[in-house]
Structure formats: structure tokens, C-alpha cells
Amino acid sequence: MYFFDEERHSKPHIHARYSDQEAVIEIPTGVLLAGELKSNKLKLVEAWIEIHKDELMANWEMASKGFPIKDIEPLK
């Protein structure tokens, strides 16, 4: 999640990276907005988003206003 990152994708989203791939995924719906990830990795990220949706949305609100965000448990 990047601060003030509303220019390219105005919807609440995260940036997920794996190896040399990067994807931009909408938080509320899990829709892929840009980029790509291997399908099995994308499914993991989608599940992680679903589990942490409330935390991610709270962080999105904070980041879009330039405030620090809270750590969220990573994928394991």
C-alpha cells in the first residue's frame, strides 16, 4: 500500500509482489486492477485480503490521507 496512491487506481487497493510479478488488487472485491501474479499466488492474496479486509480498508483510509498505517500479519 502506497501513500496518496489514488491517481492511477482511485479504488481502495493493494500492490502485491511475487518474484518479478506485481499486481494491483482492489480491497473490497479482490478484483485484479492491473498487473499479474501466478494464479496460485493470486488466490493466496485474494484469501489474505478477505481475511484482513477490515484492517486493509482502515489502512487505506489512513494512507490516502498521508497517515502511517498499521502492520498486518503477512501471508505465511
Explain how this protein is built:
The protein has 76 residues and is an alpha+beta fold. The chain has a domain at 13-64. It contains two helices and three strands; from the N terminus they run βββαα. It has helices at 39-51, 53-64; strands at residues 13-18, 21-26, 32-35. The chain has a three-stranded antiparallel β-sheet with strand order 1-2-3, covered by helices on one side. The longest helix has 13 residues, at 39-51. The radius of gyration is 12 Å and the shape is globular. It starts with 12 loop residues before the first strand and ends in a 12-residue tail after the last helix. InterPro entries: DUF4160 (IPR025427). This is DUF4160 domain-containing protein. Pfam families: DUF4160.
Largest sheet: 3 strands, antiparallel
For the CA atoms, what is the radius of gyration? Answer: 12 Å
Portion in beta strands: 15-25%
The residue fraction in helices comes out at 25-40%
* Apparent shape: globular
End-to-end gap: 19 Å
Number of strands: 3
**For the residues shown, what is the average pLDDT?**
87
H/E element order:
EEEHH
Q: Please identify the structural class as seen in this structure.
A: alpha+beta
Tally of individual helices: 2
pLDDT < 50 runs, ≥5 residues = none
Strand order of the largest sheet: 1-2-3
Protein name: DUF4160 domain-containing protein
Pfam family, one: DUF4160
InterPro entries: DUF4160
